[in-house]
Write a structure and sequence with these properties.
mainly alpha, 70% helix
Length: 50
């Protein structure tokens, strides 16, 4: 099964509607391409710049 589709479905079942950035970040964490700390840094950069 496609990882991105699985992540999206899991989020929908949980009542969430993630955007493409969130799904991509989750996929990269699960694939080992991104650490939790790196993901947090991305989120901080995205939301604290506003």
């Amino acid at each position: 099964m496609n990882t991105s589709i699985s992540l999206e479905k899991i989020q929908q079942i949980g009542g969430h509607l993630p955007d493409a950035d969130a799904l991509g970040r989750a996929r990269r964490i699960l694939m080992g391409e991104l650490t939790e700390a790196e993901a947090c840094a991305e989120l901080n950069a995205k939301f604290l710049q506003q």
